[in-house]
Amino acid sequence: MVVNKMNWIGLPALLLLLLFNTGTSQSIIKTLPGYSGTLPFKLETGYIGVGENDEVQLFYYFVESENNPKTDPLIFWISGGPGCSGLSTLVYETVCFCTGPFYYDVADFDGSLPSILPNPYSWTKLYGFQVASIIFIDSPVGTGFSYANTSKGYSSSDKKSAKDNYTFLRKWLLNHPMLSKNRLYVAGESYGGKLVPMVAMEILLGNEAGLRPRMSLQGYIIGNGLTDPNIDYNERIPIAHRLALISDEYFELAKVSCGGKYDNPDPNNVQCLLALQPIKECVNQINEGHILEPKCKRLPKTDNFGWDLTFSKDDSVDHLVLQVSKQDRQWCRSQNYESCYVWANDLTVQEALRIRKGTIGEWMRCNRSISYEVNQKSVLHYHEIFSNKGYNVLIYNGDHDLLIPYMGPLKWIRNLSMTIDDDWRPWHVNGQVAGYTMKHKKNEFNLTFVTVKGAGHTPPEYKPKECLAMIHRWLSTRLL
Predict the structure, then answer these.
(1) Identified catalytic residue from 176, 440, 457, 472
(2) Which end of the chain has fewer surrounding CB within 10 Å, N or C?
(3) Distances (CA, A) of 290 to 59, 79, 276, 333, 338
(4) So what's the pLDDT on residue 405?
(5) Model's pTM, two decimal places?
């Protein structure tokens, strides 16, 4: 069932809406293939046009809080990649991210259309306690079900994506005026963490310029996010040493030979290159996303430590084949994503989601072929700007991630010149240590740093219960 709607919002706002409304659609989804009966939560999907003449059509999923959507926070979620679909976070990666309302039945998946089950750790529901409503967006263009009407429209970049996301959010809130005053947080993981402060800055500048609707931005949330590769990537060798993947001798030799700079070493520094070689051999067969899990043999092999800006190894399933029986293959976490491909490419599913026919080819969880320019190498200065204003920030990291190690945020957070309001200490779930946290403060700015014990690159994938407790406590009290 589809419900197209437009609430009366007053003449000035209505005029703005009419100016912005080209290419916009929204539908309430009552049922989905794979789920028996009516969905037990409110799911809305749709397109919003951005860019020149709305040539870019960004697809989204909106899940309303099951507690009190009129007052609960609104989270605008940006997926990683760049090029990974919001569907990953909404549906399938509830197994992984614990943010959406349901997940695939991976255990009984046989290659046919998978069943979907309610997610007990959804960030939109917590047994009557406040969590949030969430917008999941397929961005940048070419991601998931988002598409462009022109070939030129498919070109994107960090800066363009940030502006497109802001335009999307403005139009979306004009279509949903009842949520325009809700506390707003921009959130994302992995490469999405790089875009989070950029989008937050667009919101801040729009509010300061008096643009409507004025957004009630409270802060942002980043999980294992890229901030500055010179800092984040450089911590891969120190974390490998800390996690006992390389010896003291290898680490000390590299530290001296490379001067503590391991990422993109000087090609003329022969001693440094020689010191790095045995380190690369030690970690080459390690699963960088979570060092304790097997490295999927069907994923593209790497010939180095991944010094380039790439996340293609950690979650691609392009090379997985369903013909291989489960008992004859080694389990790899990425195999769980097979059901996502089958479900999202099913025509009845696409019809249920109200996907416009003929706008995309094969749906891919992470589209690595998008035309995307990395034109904002570091976003550290965005954090510096926000640290001088009254916002609240949550930075969380799985402590077994080798891609974006938790030691990176610890280092760049120190550059913000804040005071420690609550020093390093454990936080608990059900009486057990769930990780460690510390809180920083500068005037009205609050930054909470959290590690999730035993988690990898996408922490809620590994520790959904703990991450749900984390986000609930932080949104409610700022304390863990």
Answers:
(1) 457
(2) N
(3) 30, 19, 21, 10, 19
(4) 97
(5) 0.84
Instruction: Find, among 341, 298, 320, the residue nearest to 85 by Cα.
Output: 341
Q: Write down the pLDDT at residue 300.
A: 37
How far is 418 from 413, CA to CA, in rounded Å?
A: 8
Angle (CA) 240-242-246 rounded to 5° is 50
d(C-alpha 15, C-alpha 23), whole Å: 16
> Residue 418 class from Cβ within 10 Å (0-12 exposed, 13-18 middle, 19+ buried)?
middle
Q: Delineate the domains of the chain, giving CATH numbers in brackets.
A: 11-226+376-477 (3.40.50.1820), 230-315 (no CATH)
Token pair listed for 96: 């992984």
Q: Which residues of the chain fall below pLDDT 50?
A: 1-22, 89-99, 126-129, 298-324
Distances 50 to 47, 242, 360 between C-alpha atoms, Å: 10, 45, 17
Catalytic site residue from 65, 79, 115, 190: 190
3-state secondary structure of 248: helix
Question: Helix crossing, 158-175 with 11-20: angle to 10°?
Answer: 140
The answer to whether the CB of 398 falls within 8 A of the CB of 467 is no
The pLDDT score that the predictor gives to residue 332 is: 75
Contact 387, 416 (CB under 8 A): yes
Could you give phi then psi for residue 335, rounded to 5 degrees? -65, -25
464, 98 in Cβ contact below 8 A? yes
Query: Are the C-beta atoms of residues 339 and 109 closer than 8 Å to each other?
Result: yes
* Greatest pairwise CA separation for the chain in angstroms: 71
pLDDT of residue 100: 53
14-42: b (≥16 Cβ within 10 Å) or e: bebbeebbebbbbbbbeebbbeeeebebb
- Give which of 144, 225, 156 is closest to 394, Cα–Cα: 225
Catalytic residue selected from 133, 401, 440, 472: 401
Do 168 and 143 touch, CB atoms closer than 8 A? no
Task: Report the candidate in 437, 424, 361 with the shortest Cα–Cα distance to residue 395.
Answer: 437
241 given a catalytic annotation = no
CA distance 376 to 227: 10
Of 254, 269, 463, nearest in space to 245 by CA: 254
**Which two three-digit tokens encode residue 431?**
């009486």
Rg (CA), the chain: 22
Q: Which of 234, 305, 235 is nearest to 263 (CA)?
A: 234
Q: What span, in angstroms and rounded, lies between the C-alpha atoms of 305 and 463?
A: 26
Amino acid at position 303, single letter: D
pLDDT at 11: 41
Active site residue 190: yes
| DSSP H/E element including 434 | strand 432-442
